[in-house]
Structure formats: C-alpha cells, structure tokens
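Batch 3, record 17
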Amino acid sequence: GNSVTQMEGPVTLSEEAFLTINCTYTATGYPSLFWYVQYPGEGLQLLLKATKADDKGSNKGFEAIYRKETTSFHLEKGSVQVSDSAVYFCAPRADISNFGNEKLTFGTGTRLTIIP
Amino acid sequence: NAGVTQTPKFQVLKTGQSMTLQCAQDMNHEYMSWYRQDPGMGLRLIHYSVGAGITDQGEVPNGYNVSRSTTEDFPLRLLSAAPSQTSVYFCASTPDRGANYGYTFGSGTRLTVV
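Prediction for the assembled complex:
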C-alpha cells in the first residue's frame, strides 16, 4: 500500500521567507503525486500534482518535482505570504487498476504559519 | 458546478443517537470516500466506494455504515454515536481508479457527541 512521511510541523516562517516542506513516499507501482492544502475551517483542496518522474507540478507560486530516485516530492515556494498559512498534505496515488481497490491514505499534514 | 456537497455542516448528538451524514457530488465521479480528521491523527479513511452498489472498509470502519445506491450519493451512517466519534468528517470523490486524478473534497461536517 501507499504511505507518506512528511516534515513534522508546525512550521513558522516570516512573510517573504523561502518554504520547503519535505515529503517522501512509498507506493505500489508508479504513483502520481499530489499536494493538498487545507485552509482553516475548510476541506482539502488540490494544490498541485505530478504524474511521472521528473515532472514539476506548480500552482499559486508553489512547486514540487517528482524525484523517483529519492521517492520524494518536496513542496517549495520562494516567497510565502500570510495567506499561505494552512495545513499541507502530501499524497501519492498509484494506478491501482491491476492492484485491487485503493485505500488512499494521508499523513498528519504539516501545519504552516506565516508571520507578517 | 457544486462539486462535493456535505450536510449538515455542524451537528451535536447525544451518546447512543444515530444519524446520517449526507454527501453528494455532481461530477459523475465513480469513486467516493469518507474520512475523519482528528487533531494529531491526520485524515483516516472510514469507508469508500468504487461505484454504485460497491462499498468497502477503510482504516477505521467500526461504528459506521455506508451505502451507494446512486453514483451521486454516498451517505455515512452512525449507528449509535459515541464520544469517540467526535470529529470532523470529510467526503471526497475522484473520477475513477486512474492515478492521474486528484480528489475533490467537501467542506466537512463537524460532529460533537456528548
């Protein structure tokens, strides 16, 4: 099955700082990789994805590169804003057509707080 | 396009009461699932469905039932509420089993059992 290890939070940064949230995974087959974001009081939203090795996912200034050799998908942003304060979840998803039913699992997430 | 709609948004139950959390999606997604989110525990899968008429258990299924009579609806039933079921519940859907699709989440139901 799939599993993910994320950087322990909480992470507190000043506005305009550089952000990295580490994510390493194990998955069946050749997974696609996703980052989700959860703002306070809301459900998770898809932030970005990468579907094959060396792909870069990007959205809202966030980026992550699919590193197959290190099984990693670290989230980065060059200059964070207060509005980026949220919980971030990394989630691999394998094509389970040949592997039975899927049980997508999420880790505990990484809570990010940006200070003005 | 409404996406995934969950009702109610908030609910307080007494121990032993039963209730149904509603989830509906209008995207014709094949796959739907229920998660609970607790502080320090992340998201844990309760039940999921790969299509109408097909359901299966996730990590923490005890105390919950589901059914999938239509593609659109995937209700979660609490049979006899317990304080341990106090949590925030999220419903999510995705088009199919293919790995390239992400999940769409509802806005959640915050349940308190007293």
